[in-house]
Write a structure and sequence with these properties.
CATH topology: Spore Coat Polysaccharide Biosynthesis Protein SpsA, Chain A
Number of helices: 5
Shape: globular
Number of domains: 1
Number of strands: 4
CATH class: Alpha Beta
Order of helices and strands: EEEHHEHHH
Distance between the termini: 30 Å
Largest sheet: 4 strands, mixed
Radius of gyration: 15 Å
Structural class: alpha+beta
Length: 145
């Protein structure tokens, strides 16, 4: 069965560097599906493992995105439903909080502009309202660990 898959992914837990044993957020990839790309949802990309054939077929990450290249790549490979994938309900990555995409309002706006652009460039119909609607659900990640 695993030999039939092109991709597998799981969950990520975040911690603060001064207290690595305390989880502050868990990003669950459980509810991802290609249909949710239009709402800006993607699996936790640090946990996304792909067969080389996926890169051969779809190409690599693009460098003309400042902070949304991961989303553009995920949109490109999952948009047409040809990549066979499986979510595994496990934490594969523990990482510190922080990073460019979560460093403030400016980076959040840039990220969402790039997600909108990635959707449009990959033929995924979306709009600002759809993309921004994910944030109330993302807040739950801080409560449900």
């Amino acid at each position: 069965m695993a030999s039939e898959l092109d991709a597998v992914y799981a969950d990520v837990e975040f911690f603060r560097s001064e207290k690595p044993e305390a989880i502050v957020r868990r990003y669950s990839s459980r509810h991802f599906s290609p249909q949710k790309l239009a709402w800006g949802w993607m699996p936790a990309h640090p946990t996304l493992f792909l067969r080389r054939s996926v890169f051969d077929r779809f190409g690599l990450y693009r460098f003309d995105y400042r902070i949304g290249g991961d989303f553009e790549f995920v949109a490109r490979i999952f948009k047409d439903g040809s990549v066979r994938y499986r979510y595994l309900p496990e934490v594969w990555i523990r990482m510190r909080v922080g990073g460019v995409s979560t460093s403030g309002l400016r980076s959040t706006l840039l990220l969402n502009r790039e997600v909108l652009r990635a959707c449009r460039e990959n033929g995924i119909r979306t709009n600002w309202l759809m993309l921004l609607s994910k944030y109330p659900f993302k807040m739950l990640e801080f409560l449900v660990k």
